From TrEMBL:
<keyword id="KW-0521">NADP</keyword>
<protein>
    <submittedName>
        <fullName>Alcohol dehydrogenase zinc-binding domain-containing protein</fullName>
    </submittedName>
</protein>
<dbReference type="InterPro" id="IPR020843">
    <property type="entry name" value="ER"/>
</dbReference>
<feature type="domain" description="Enoyl reductase (ER)">
    <location>
        <begin position="10"/>
        <end position="301"/>
    </location>
</feature>
<dbReference type="InterPro" id="IPR013154">
    <property type="entry name" value="ADH-like_N"/>
</dbReference>
<dbReference type="InterPro" id="IPR036291">
    <property type="entry name" value="NAD(P)-bd_dom_sf"/>
</dbReference>
<dbReference type="InterPro" id="IPR011032">
    <property type="entry name" value="GroES-like_sf"/>
</dbReference>
<dbReference type="Pfam" id="PF08240">
    <property type="entry name" value="ADH_N"/>
</dbReference>
<dbReference type="InterPro" id="IPR013149">
    <property type="entry name" value="ADH-like_C"/>
</dbReference>
<dbReference type="GO" id="GO:0016491">
    <property type="term" value="F:oxidoreductase activity"/>
</dbReference>
<dbReference type="InterPro" id="IPR051603">
    <property type="entry name" value="Zinc-ADH_QOR/CCCR"/>
</dbReference>
<dbReference type="Pfam" id="PF00107">
    <property type="entry name" value="ADH_zinc_N"/>
</dbReference>
């Protein structure tokens, strides 16, 4: 089968097309024929910073496709269904779907929209529901509110009944308000930490690498919660709870994916798709070039 990957690192141009064996499935897995692939910054970091390999490495985590084979122990999925899966080696014509990370795509949702939802949806839903444990009526401040994870966090927290304040660049104000934020603060026009001092019951830091932890401390209320993608807990005398957002199975991928796809089906959740590219070497190279640049919206490969 056709797949795309690399044997060395350094730039998007390292991607090559390979002919690799079709994957085999176990009794509790399904085989999926790829329709759409979502690209993520994690994959950019892998080829940019990882080690060279002796055989082709096929990256990719986010796939929407059609089930073409089911394992003997699979009872709730069937051949012909369109599903979304959080997988491994997703830049390929066929991928394996684990039952705890595969859900049916609701009728009426395009593969492009569904695949754009997978990794940011998993991260945002687990951040809001599991790590921050957002409750109705709370004031939630979302940093990076215009990005993939941040924008979904705004919508998920709003659906839970929270009052959401979004922080992003000024040119994103209309968008962030359109997805549910009751207030918008432009970090390029004012100091959010001063304007929002002691305001948030919860501060969700979805900015790149969790930048600006000192600002998070200023914005959270005493005894509030900071949930951040930053790795290190802040040093402060202020009474607060700091939670590092990380991949976890305490809430399964399937549970989180089902929740976000249901919200999208019901018109309560949307994801900005910025680019659709072909399932070719040129498409994957261009997609990863876009990930290196300042880009607006998710990058999706369509087969």
């Amino acid at each position: 089968m056709k797949a795309f990957g690399y044997e060395k690192h350094g730039a998007p141009e390292v991607f090559q097309e390979y002919d690799v064996p079709e994957p085999t499935i176990s009794a509790d897995q399904v085989l999926i024929q790829t329709i759409a692939v979502g690209l993520n910054n994690r994959e950019r970091a892998e080829w940019e910073n990882g080690r060279s390999t002796t055989s082709p490495y096929i990256p990719g985590r986010d796939v929407v496709g059609e089930i073409v084979k089911v394992g003997d122990q699979v009872s709730d999925l069937s051949v012909g269904q369109t599903v979304m899966t959080h997988t491994e080696h997703g830049y390929a014509e066929y991928v394996v779907g684990d039952l705890d990370a595969t859900v049916v795509v609701s009728d009426g949702l395009t593969p492009t929209r569904a695949v754009g939802l997978i990794t940011p949806g998993l991260t945002a839903y687990k951040a809001v529901k599991y790590f921050a444990d957002v409750k109705p009526g709370q004031t939630v401040i979302v940093k990076g509110a215009s990005g993939g994870v941040g924008s979904l966090s705004v919508q998920i927290a709003t659906d839970l009944g929270a009052q959401v304040i979004g922080i992003a660049s000024s040119h994103n104000e209309a968008y962030v308000k359109s997805i549910g934020a009751v207030k918008f603060v432009a970090y390029d026009q004012t100091d959010p930490a001063e304007e929002l001092a002691d305001t948030g019951d919860v501060v969700l830091n979805m900015a790149m690498n969790g930048a600006g932890t000192d600002d998070d401390i200023k914005m959270v209320k005493p005894n509030g919660v900071i949930a951040s993608v930053a790795h290190q807990a802040p040093t402060t005398d202020k009474a607060l709870k700091f939670v590092h957002i990380f991949p976890t199975n305490a809430m399964t991928d399937r549970e989180a994916m089902q929740a976000v796809i249901d919200l999208m089906r019901d018109g309560k959740l949307d994801i900005k798709i910025g680019y659709t590219l072909p399932f070719t070497r040129a498409g994957f190279v261009k997609g990863h070039q876009l990930l290196e640049e300042k880009h607006d919206g998710r990058v999706v490969i369509i087969k």
